[in-house]
Write a structure and sequence with these properties.
By secondary structure, the protein is an alpha/beta fold. 39% of the residues lie in helices and 17% in strands. It has 16 helices and 18 strands. The chain has a 6-stranded mixed β-sheet with strand order 5-6-7-3-8-9, with helices on both faces. Strands 15-16-17-13-18 form a 5-stranded parallel β-sheet, sandwiched between helices. Helix 5 packs antiparallel against helix 6.
Length: 556
């Protein structure tokens, strides 16, 4: 990668292909991103969005095709490691290393410059680089971003003592302050509250370089992107770049493309059937009708018959060569018909939580939260306000220092935690992904293990078990794979399936849109509005909050 502070900074991916053993992911991806371009990457979970970012960043080498980058590069992955002993200061120092180097180079160029014989080109380049990075303002930018993202700021704090969300916010703030020529972000809004998203949106809109963002955030697509790259294959079997700058326009264009694809496929299959029937008829004529009486022009008639057969064969071969592939039907969420009441309902709410307090995390003195049958509750508030703790308290997955929780007899809960199964146990019993060895199991096996665990805890009615393959969240091929081989988004889909497994009367969902594809977010929102079960949702997703604006809201 060469450095270039000029306006021609760009990223070029040419026919990039990448796959894992037995599992192709990227197929001939083309992409050109210049300074000022902000490309949103979308697609179904497992389509290769995160893999594409890693290839573009140079972490993975394409198996075919090439990637060319100009300028400095900064990326923020979904899953960040916390190296032993590393601190927030480590992150900051790493991010600002280039800025510090530019400042040092300028100081050296000025100190060694001789006005009569000095290297003016070197001095000019050093000044240009220093100004391009706005190096004098870098520390303030990082500190401001840490504050606006709600991230911890103490340089000595160890990364392994931070939550997943805190680590992500620290890294994101450092990269925003770094001001690289090429910025690659993977689901940047997952761990931000409304104020943090607004700040990020403003910074991205004014970003001087090129930006590529994998996101499910429909509002971010509307507010920031100049184009949308959809990794789901189009009619030619390759990913498609849509010039639409609004999510609704992109969805319209994609729907129209899929309809044309389906219409062409149906027309080609109809034509193929007609040609096959014509060929069969010609063969029959050749064997039966084209047997003229003795003494007639046998040779000429046989030649004409063979000509008909060859012509039909050529037409069929031409049609097969030019035919489009069968349109791959996208996964469509089939939300189960959840019950609203237990077998022997009693008067009062299904779930009741009064004055909960968890030391240093939540204190709602004098507050009573009742979840009635078919009830709805939208929980909002900034990062650190206690939304996840409140939902864990409702689920009975956390010990209260004060307060009372009551659940009606026979009521089943479905719980989706924000940061995966290790954050809070679902409905008090272990989630199938909470144990490390479970990651080696296939989706089918892990789902069955979870069902048995719920059954032993008397939290499952075997007559109302929801089959995982019937939900439209994962294909049967993906469910046959070990969980560890699935993408982050696919594992999130599996967690959602586990929350639905027991046909719950109450759904408790913490940031349910995180890591999901934009299409599934639309489907899930509609399903939550229509389900007979009671639903409690905590979300920072601005579009989902707008879609659920008529629900009762608890703001922390």
């Amino acid at each position: 990668m060469t450095e270039s502070p000029t306006g021609d900074v760009q990223l070029v991916a040419d026919a990039v292909t990448y796959g894992y053993p037995g599992h192709p992911v990227l197929d001939r991806v083309d992409l050109v991103v210049s300074a000022g371009d902000r490309v949103g990457v979308v697609g179904e979970n497992g389509a290769g969005k995160t893999t594409l970012l890693r290839v573009l960043a140079g972490e993975l080498a394409p198996q075919t095709g090439t990637v060319r980058r100009r300028g400095t590069l900064a990326s923020v992955e979904q899953e960040l490691d916390a190296p032993g002993g590393a601190t927030i200061g480590t992150f900051v120092a790493e991010a600002l290393g280039g800025v510090r180097a530019a400042a040092g180079e300028l100081e050296a160029a000025i100190a060694g410059f001789d006005h009569e014989s000095g290297d003016l080109a070197r001095l000019t380049a050093a000044v240009s680089r220093y100004e391009h990075l706005a190096a004098w303002d870098a520390d303030r930018r990082v500190d401001e971003a840490l504050t606006r993202f709600g991230a911890p700021r103490e340089p000595e704090r160890r990364l392994d003592q931070l939550s997943v969300g805190e680590r992500y916010r620290v890294r994101l703030a450092c990269r925003i302050g770094e001001r690289a020529d090429l910025l690659l972000l993977d689901e940047p809004t997952n761990h931000l509250d409304a104020a943090g998203i607004d700040y990020l949106t403003a910074r991205l809109r004014e970003w001087p370089g090129a930006v590529v963002i994998v996101t499910h955030d429909r509002r971010l697509l509307d507010d920031v992107m100049t184009a949308i790259l959809d990794l789901d294959p189009a009619m030619d079997g390759r990913p498609a770049l849509y010039g639409a700058t609004r999510y609704s326009d992109y969805r319209f264009l994609k729907t129209q493309m899929v309809r044309r694809w389906q219409a062409r496929y149906r027309a080609e299959r109809k034509r193929a059937l007609e040609l096959a029937e014509r060929l069969d008829s010609t063969y029959e004529n050749l064997s039966d009708e084209w047997r003229p009486p003795k003494g007639s022009q046998t040779h000429r008639r046989a030649t004409r018959a063979r000509g008909h057969v060859k012509a039909a064969d050529r037409l069929i071969q031409k049609l097969d060569a030019e035919a489009v592939e069968v349109p791959t039907p996208p996964l469509v969420l089939t939300f189960p018909d959840l019950p609203s009441l237990p077998p022997e309902p009693q008067p009062g709410p299904l779930l009741d939580l009064r004055a909960p307090r968890v030391r240093d995390r939540l204190d709602l003195a004098g507050v009573r939260i009742e979840v009635p049958a078919c009830g709805r509750l939208l929980v909002t508030g900034p990062n650190g306000s206690g939304k996840s703790t409140l939902l864990a308290a409702l689920a009975g997955a956390i010990v209260l220092d004060r307060g009372v929780r009551a659940i009606a007899p026979g009521v089943r809960l479905g719980v989706l935690a924000q940061e995966g199964p290790t954050e809070h146990a679902a409905a008090v019993v272990a989630h199938p992904r909470a144990a490390g060895t479970a990651e080696q199991l296939s989706g089918f096996d892990a789902y069955a293990r979870h069902a048995l665990t719920l059954l032993e805890a008397r939290l499952l009615d075997p007559d109302q078990l929801v089959p995982v393959a019937a939900l439209g969240l994962l294909t049967e091929q993906d469910l046959d794979r070990p969980l560890r081989e699935l993408s982050v988004g696919q594992r999130r889909r599996f967690d959602l399936a586990c929350a639905l497994l027991a046909a719950p009367h109450v759904l408790i969902l913490d940031e349910p849109t995180n890591h999901l594809s934009v299409g599934l977010v639309d489907e899930l929102t509609a399903a939550l509005r229509a389900t007979s079960a009671a639903v409690v949702v905590a979300t920072h997703d601005r579009r989902m909050r707008a879609d659920l604006a008529d629900w009762p809201e608890l703001s922390l």
